[in-house]
DNA sequence: GTCTATATAACGATAGAC
DNA sequence: GTCTATCGTTATATAGAC
């Protein structure tokens, strides 16, 4: 039962993505060359182009996969029955998900400027989808008199922006645990809309 | 009283620095070429090398000037007479200074990885000097039984790391004013050491 | 699918005329 | 001090042998 070459090759593309992710996070997209990626994967440069048409696509696939997996994971969550607990649940989910993927989060924030316009629009669309989840939670809450918030759109942007910071907090001060961070942000967010 | 060419030239170097700062902050050091900088300044590439020996020096001068000016400004402050107000004063000063220089702060954080080892050490030295100001305030406070803090070195690193975030907060949520941010952080920092 | 070799373009940096 | 021209290097991406 010899393994075929093909079954190894299936592992090559994810390996390229993984190594590119590390390198992009460490040195920045523009500072990383295809040769450096190939060397770390254990290939020659040319071989990379069997898996990705260009360098830009390595980056955009990383970002798109990150956002799609975020959305997918949310939609697989078993939501709390009580709708007044939905906002806390969202904050909890968001922090949990992002703390576990520091490199993806970092390049999703840093390397947006290196996407070409088409890929940028794709990411923007996915971000809007995610933001819509939160703004719907907020406007539902407003309708049920749970929250008071005039601009739910803007509030959801501000909240997600705020939550994004969580990764740096977590890194810079190891004494704050993940549950503590969740608590802090839940309080801040709840205060912001009540 | 015709202006000499020389007096214009005196303005050229700061202009290069300023434009490089904007471009580095916008696109990242590695993604910006000397040709792009020259074009925005209104020069040909070669002329840049009359002011900077290489691209690396443009970046390192920006970062070094940023740190030195931060230290200089601190040492020119009239400190509060009551030493128990020193920590609040530092937090206030730090936030004020950094909110007014978002681009410098951003590249001082982002582009460290693009400094060569020598320049990195220079910046590290300046950062340590700044950090020493805070850790001295803390250890003085501990000696006077104002604060309780076992590891003043680590605490000062954590606090500065935390304060660094302030620029993103300020941007992401325009509803929070600078004085409010100062208040929030003063409370957090004081809580952290008492 | 990976290799070597190469096309083509852009980069940082330098040289010399003015 | 700025220009044009260019060197040497490196980059992305492609072509063709295996």
If you had to describe this structure to a student in words, what would you say it looks like?
- 2 copies of one chain form a homodimer.
- Chain A has helices spanning 5-27, 34-41, 45-48, 55-75, 86-99, 102-110, 117-143, 152-164, 166-172, 178-193.
- The termini of chain A are far apart.
- Mean pLDDT of chain A is 90; it is low at 1-5.
- The radius of gyration of chain A is 20 Å and the shape is elongated.
- Chain A is mostly helical and 194 residues long.
- In chain A, helix 1 crosses helix 2.
- The longest helix of chain A is centred in the C-terminal third of the chain and has 27 residues, at 117-143.
- Helices cover 73% and strands 0% of the residues of chain A.
- Chain B binds a DNA duplex (18 and 18 nucleotides) through residues 5-6, 8-9, 12, 33-35, 43-50, 53-55.
